[in-house]
Design a protein that fits this description.
single chain, 153 residues, mainly beta, 5-stranded mixed beta sheet, 2 helices
């Protein structure tokens, strides 16, 4: 992905203290100022309930809604999974939520659902914590989404 993984931005740059279990870098076109982290096998109706409010992440069931700054924009995304709580990301913290992941796979989707974003297979199914940071560089919105198993799940 050009926006988050370029010759001068590597996984080590994004995660300087320690590395995630796995990470997917990709780009996605977003409309209506939002996109979602959606668990495969979940209820797509959860997307309608996980609408971000203001500049904060919102979770419901199997979906986490993430707000964007621009109404229609091409974004860069790093979606990473960790064995335990990850270190904090950089720039603007958009919040956290919990989502249910019944079939171990997460995908990013836009409002239209026509352009699937990156997918990431998790080590196990269950309840996961989600934290999101936004960074802007050269008018490009970039999102750092970190997920890990919820304690006591």
């Amino acid at each position: 992905m050009a926006a988050m993984k370029s010759p001068n931005r590597s996984s080590e740059d994004l995660f300087p203290d320690r590395q995630p279990w796995d990470v997917a870098f990709d780009e996605l076109t977003v409309s209506y100022s939002q996109f979602w982290v959606l668990a495969e096998g979940g209820d797509r109706g959860d997307v309608e309930s996980a609408v971000p409010e203001g500049d904060a992440v919102s979770g419901h069931g199997t979906a986490a809604g993430v707000p964007t700054q621009a109404s229609r924009v091409r974004i860069g995304v790093a979606l990473s999974v960790w064995d335990e709580a990850p270190p904090d990301g950089a720039r603007v913290y958009l919040g956290s939520c919990r989502i249910d992941v019944p079939e171990r796979e997460l995908t990013l989707v836009n409002v239209e659902g026509r352009e699937p974003g990156p997918s990431l297979v998790l080590p196990d199914s269950g309840i996961y914590e989600v934290k999101v940071w936004r960074r802007s560089a050269d008018e490009t919105e970039q999102y750092d989404i970190r997920v890990w198993p919820s304690p006591g799940r």
